Amino acid sequence: MEELRVVLLGKTGTGKSSLGNTLLGRQAFAPARGVLSGTDTCQWAEATVDGVTLSVTDTPGLCDTHRSADEAFLEIGKSIALACPGIHVVIIALRGDHRFTKEEYDAVKTLQALFGERVRRHLMIVFTGGDGLADDINGMQGYLKEQLSTAPKNLKEVLRDANNRYCIVSNAGTFETRRQHAKVVLSMIQDVVRRNTGEYFTNEMVDECNRKVQEIIARRQRVHGLSDNQAVTGYVFSFLVPDD
Questions:
Q1: PROSITE patterns annotated for this entry (predicted)?
Q2: How confident is the model at residue 156 (pLDDT cuts 50, 70, 90)?
Q3: Which residues pair with 45 in a beta bridge?
Q4: Could you tell me which residues come within 8 angstroms of residue 207 by beta carbon, excluding any fewer than 6 positions away?
Q5: Per-residue b or e along 139-162, where b marks 16 or more CB atoms closer than 10 Å to that residue's CB
Q6: What is the CATH number of domain 4-202?
Q7: Chain mean position to CA 47
Q8: In whole angstroms, what is the distance from residue 28 CA to residue 135 CA?
Q9: Residue-level pLDDT at 12
Q10: I want to staple 17 with a disulfide (CB 3.0 to 4.6 A). Which of 29, 112, 220, 227 is the partner?
Q11: Rg of the Cα trace of the chain?
């Protein structure tokens, strides 16, 4: 059976965790409810969807005021290990009915710097909140396309980084009604995998990410005066990915 491994990234409140639930067809992740809620650590779940084993890793929200950027990026780095032996697709969740902010743009660019330029080959954007924009999925896609024609420059840049692979979905309603939306995203995931001929993040990519994580750890030691164990514990993960 084909296995697809996906990592979800996005700001808390974008419907990132709910998107994971939509894709899996069940309540696997707890959606954010309030300022201090949301995913604090990487979480993993899988399900068989349309004959495919879909593995989804949910990550801490970006731009959270109660968590430093370093902490968020270090935890996100661990998502590579949870998606062993490698990530097929990285999904960035954005709200389709909210303004794209500079902090979101900066976070996306920092993630690209963390994972390296090759992450673009595995990147796609999923806008959420489509139910507030149109009544059906086709209407949502049409509305989004129209709105993106006049989107701000920084959002268009992020879309280009993802090779203009994007769609919009609704996480509202029952899992049965959300199934149609899950199919749209799953089809796009499979298209990314085909275009990459099944390639996922390799050990080389993981090593590069781990090197950058080590730089963050060193900075945490300098700035916060942490011991080696305090700074490093839980954040060295490349050894979890087996050699080919």
A1: G_AIG1
A2: very high
A3: 56
A4: 238
A5: ebbebbeeebeeeeebbeebbebb
A6: 3.40.50.300
A7: 18
A8: 26
A9: 83
A10: 29
A11: 17
- Is cis: bond before 152, omega within 30 of 0? no
Q: Is 215 exposed, middle or buried (0-12, 13-18, 19+ CB in 10 A)?
A: exposed
Match 């199919």 to its residue by tokens.
Answer: 183
Cβ within 8 Å of residue 87, ≥6 positions away: 5, 6, 7, 79, 80, 122, 200, 201
Domain ranges of the chain: 4-202
State the pLDDT confidence band at 68, using cuts at 50, 70 and 90. Answer: low
CA-to-CA distance for 213 and 215, rounded, in angstroms? 5
The structure's pTM equals: 0.81
Residue 231: pLDDT band (50, 70, 90) is very low
CA–CA distance, 85 with 32 (Å, rounded to integer): 29
Instruction: Please report the pLDDT score of residue 19 as a whole number.
Output: 97
The SS3 call for residue 221 is helix
DSSP state, 38?
S
Residue 18 sits at φ, ψ, to 5 deg, of: -65, -35
**d(Cα 47, Cα 26) in Å, to the nearest integer?**
9
Q: What would the 3-class secondary structure string for 84-113 be?
A: CCCCCEEEEEEECCCCCCHHHHHHHHHHHH
- Is the previous residue joined to 60 through a cis bond, with omega within 30 degrees of 0? no
Q: Are 44 and 55 in contact (CB under 8 A)?
A: yes
Residue 178 contacts residue 170 (beta carbons within 8 Å) = yes
Instruction: Tell me the Ramachandran region of residue 98: left when phi exceeds 0, alpha when psi lies from -120 to 50, beta otherwise.
Output: beta
Q: How many helices (H) and strands (E) does the chain have?
A: 9, 6
pLDDT value at residue 237: 35
Joined together, the tokens standing for residue 140 give 């949502």
